[in-house]
Amino acid sequence: MGSLTTMIVLTVIILTTISLAVRIVPQGQKFVIQRLGKFHSTLTPGLNMLIPYVDQVAYKLSTKDIVLDIPSQEVITHDNAVIIANAVAYINIVSPEEAVYGVEDYEIAIRNLIQTSLRSIIGEMSLDDALSSRNFIKAKLKEDISDDIAGWGIILKTVEIQDIKPSITMQQAMEEQAAAERERRAAVTKAEGEKQAAILEADGRLEASKRDAQAQIELAKGQSQAIHQVTQVLSDKGELPVLYLLGDKYVDSIEKMASSDNAKTVVLPADLLATVKGMLSKT
């Protein structure tokens, strides 16, 4: 019975020793080995042999690209506008021993670095530039972070700005500003339209007055020619041409008086010719 127990114990010890001595590292991972508490080596994918009870697997790290989500944060731009920005980073661990011994927690460290750099970059930009310069922010962010994390055995494959937008209060202020700008443009357009209408109306009145003046000139010319022709025809008649012209004007005046709305009664002289002659003798 004692020998059987001893054999079982020895078997367990042997199996445990073999399991500690043999390590199979799956593809896409690397194991960091410590020997007596000190870094010894890094195991690559495949079958690896260790010294039992002396070597131990301290860390298991992935060699695949790791996606780090950078939480949203409020950032103040150069012109004191508040915007909300977040990002996503793709990293790859090329030196596992530097990643685990160079920094306490590389994921937290990288997130903090990206957030700090993002605040610094956007803080030097205006609101309009920050909203329209994602590629510039991305390139600048990658340039600033890559050198910092290289000492940890990590490379930054790429970093993308997921979202960058004004805060809720800024959005409300921008909407109010846009509404005020639309109202201002509408008022300017209305005033410009009224101005153009007034100019066109004034131009119309000016053109009409010019045409009226031209018509009066043409009428005067016609009357002058008529008087000249009448004078030539009646030149041998003494005062008859003058009587004719005065009579013509007198008749026109009587006609206008008769057509007036205020005229109730129009008195005509019995002897029109005598009346005209009387007017002539007075002049």
Overall description:
The chain is an alpha+beta fold and 283 residues long. It has eight helices and eight strands. A three-stranded antiparallel beta sheet has the order 3-2-5. A hairpin with a 5-residue loop joins strand 6 (66-76) and strand 7 (82-93). The longest helix has 66 residues, at 168-233. It starts with a helix and ends with a helix.
Topology of this protein?
Layout lengths: L1 H20 E4 L3 E7 L2 E6 L2 E4 L5 E8 L3 E11 L5 E12 L2 H6 L4 H18 L3 H6 L1 H17 L3 E13 L1 H66 L6 H20 L12 H11 L1
Antiparallel strand pairs: 1-4, 2-3, 2-5, 6-7, 7-8
Helix pairs in contact: 3-5, 7-8
User: Biggest β-sheet, characterized?
Assistant: 3 strands, antiparallel
Number of strands: 8
Overall 3D form: rod-shaped
Number of helical stretches of at least 4 residues:
8
SSE series: HEEEEEEEHHHHEHHH
Integer average pLDDT: 80
Strand order of the largest sheet: 3-2-5
User: What is the straight-line distance between the termini?
Assistant: 171 Å
Helix content: 55-70%
The rounded Rg comes to: 54 Å
List low-pLDDT spans. Answer: none
Fraction of residues in β-strands = 15-25%
Q: Helices and strands: which structural class?
A: alpha+beta
Summarize this structure briefly.
With about 280 residues, this protein is α+β, with helices and mostly antiparallel strands.
Write a concise keyword list for the protein shown above.
283 residues; alpha+beta; three-stranded antiparallel sheet; 8 strands
